[in-house]
Design brief:
Layout (H helix, E strand, L loop, with lengths): L14 E5 L2 E5 L11 E8 L7 E6 L9 E12 L2 E5 L2 H9 L2 H12 L9 E6 L24 H17 L4 E6 L7 E2 L15 E2 L4 H17 L6 E2 L18 H19 L4 E8 L11 H6 L2 H6 L2 E5 L6 H9 L4 E6 L2 E2 L7 H17 L3 E8 L1 E3 L13 E2 L2 E3 L7 E3 L1 H10 L7 E6 L7 E6 L4 E8 L5 E6 L5 E6 L3 E8 L1
Parallel strand pairs: 1-4, 5-24, 6-7, 6-16, 7-8, 8-11, 11-12, 12-13, 13-14, 14-16, 17-19
Antiparallel strand pairs: 1-2, 3-4, 3-26, 5-21, 9-10, 15-18, 19-20, 21-22, 22-23, 23-26, 24-25
Helix pairs in contact: 1-3, 4-5, 9-10
């Protein structure tokens, strides 16, 4: 699939407004006394007939829909850090297989704030992940003095990150480890026997300081390459023992590690890298003793001082858990750091996934206090790889690239849901109040950007075309119409 406007922010379609007599986009005169305010609009339909299709609208002095949505910029919720995808070893491998000109075109379309969608947050692994080219950490020889970046970082990840940063220097990067070095592992915290396995095991408390030094060295090594690490989590999916590279770390362990080693190590090294706790599912993998994992860590004042907030995935439970955590600790941030599509959830069926993922992942997280939203692999090939033994063999990327030519791409739901947020909602924006007495079944969120522009993102999950009217002052109205099963993003200057 190709975008109808490859550089989607590069040009305008004709200026238009919505006529009440005909809710199709058509040119009409703006009522006298009403300032014409241009609104950039981007539409994607689940049937792929529209793909970030762009038009320009004007405000009207009359609401054309009974579904009137009122925005109130004086009521602010969380500020936004950004939206993006994981740039894994597999992603970087695929990108490096592309012709340089084709790769640049894709990266500009994805990350440029002026010529593309403006993706603004990236997640990378600290060492290997389940989508790396091999199993490794950056210190597989015992002794922290043996730390060194490996070929996956030097040959794939760092070159791609440098290309992205050249396009968008403000990109935020989050790092997460899937496992500590094996020589730091024990089978459990009672017996503390050496555990020579990439999968499962626990961190030996005797190596807390060494492992904290590992984080510091990793951040500093990327810094020497001109790549600033904005944030980290102490462990990806700490309650998942079964991942191909994994480490079990219950809340008591993570608390101790952050309090005794990681936080003090960052402070001593003068790092301002943010630390987010947990990084796992809404339902805590049904482990009752792990419920409210980050809140239990916050209850320790020393550990809490080192923690910016908590990160979540959606492989179990529902996003209402975000509201519960926010109610308990409104002083701490929330981010969403991973979700996947694959063979198990009909991941290449945009008719299904665009609606579900927009509702549950994109809007379902930002409307529940998340400051950032990151999906899993930015790019995989058409054979769902490259992958390795023990890694996911059934996952799709936000984009799938044809392995036969490393040029032809299929854009999946995750690319659209992030793009519809990032194209209009900029880092530093505040989510603002948006409400309606009758919203017509639409799901939406509104934001005020740092430059004073207003962003509105809306999902029509129904089988029918749906119209709506958006206002801030009750006098000027953005009258929009969304096709069945579609997403719209709108941006205007107040």
């Amino acid at each position: 699939m190709k975008f109808k406007l490859p550089l989607i922010l590069a040009c305008y379609m004709s200026t238009a407004v919505i006529a009440c007599a005909n809710t199709r986009m058509s040119s009409v005169n703006t009522p006298s006394g009403i300032e014409k305010v241009k609104v950039k609009a981007y539409i994607t339909t689940a049937d792929r007939t529209q793909s970030f299709d762009r038009t320009v609208l004007n405000f009207s002095g009359k609401a054309c829909s009974s579904s009137i949505i009122t925005l109130n910029p004086t009521v602010r919720y969380q500020s936004m850090d950004g939206f993006g995808a994981a740039v894994t070893g597999s992603t970087c491998y695929n990108l490096m297989k592309m012709a340089p000109s084709e790769r640049t075109r894709f990266l500009v379309r994805t990350f440029s704030e002026k010529e593309g969608l403006g993706f603004s947050y990236i997640r990378i692994s600290i060492g290997c992940s389940d989508f790396s080219l091999s199993e490794y950490t950056c210190c597989d020889t015992p002794g922290i003095e043996n730390f060194a970046l490996q070929s996956e970082e030097k040959d794939y990840v760092i070159p791609i990150l440098k290309e992205i940063l050249a396009i968008n220097p403000t990109i935020k990067i989050l790092g997460s480890p899937w496992t500590c070095p094996k020589w730091m592992k024990v089978n459990n915290l009672e017996e503390k026997k050496p555990f020579d396995s990439w999968t499962s095991g626990q961190l030996n408390p005797l190596y807390y300081k060494d492992y904290a030094a590992y984080f510091v060295k990793w951040i500093q090594a990327f810094g020497k390459e001109g790549i600033r690490i904005y944030s980290v989590t102490p462990q990806n999916e700490p309650l998942n023992r079964g991942n191909s590279a994994s480490l079990f770390m219950g809340w008591k362990e993570e608390l101790a590690f952050v309090r005794e080693a990681l936080g003090p190590a960052f402070k001593s090294a003068g790092l301002d890298t943010r630390i987010y706790a947990f990084d796992h599912n809404y339902n805590y993998d049904n482990m009752a003793e792990q419920n409210d994992y980050p809140v239990r860590m916050y209850d320790d004042e020393v550990a809490a001082a080192f923690l910016t907030g908590a990160a979540y995935h959606n492989y179990g439970g529902n996003s209402e858990e975000l509201n519960d955590i926010q109610r308990q600790r409104p002083d701490k941030e929330l981010i969403f750091t991973e979700t996947s599509i694959g063979m198990w959830n009909d991941g290449r069926n945009l008719q299904r996934r665009l609606i579900e993922d927009m509702r549950e992942v994109a809007l379902g997280t930002v409307n529940n206090w998340c400051k950032g939203v990151i999906v899993w692999n930015l790019m995989l090939d058409t054979e769902r790889g490259p992958n390795r033994e023990g890694g996911c063999r059934t996952c799709y990327g936000a984009v799938d690239i044809d392995k036969s030519d490393y040029k032809t791409m299929t854009y999946n739901s995750h690319y659209y849901i992030i793009g519809h947020l990032s194209s209009v909602v900029k880092p530093g924006a505040f989510r603002i109040e948006s409400k309606s007495d009758r919203d017509g079944g639409l799901i939406y969120s509104a934001f005020e950007n740092p430059d004073g522009t207003v962003a509105f993102v809306v999902l029509n999950a129904s089988e029918d075309t749906s119209g709506f009217s958006v206002t801030i002052d009750g006098k000027n109205y953005l009258n929009g119409e969304l096709p069945a099963k579609s997403v719209g993003s709108y941006l205007w200057k107040k």
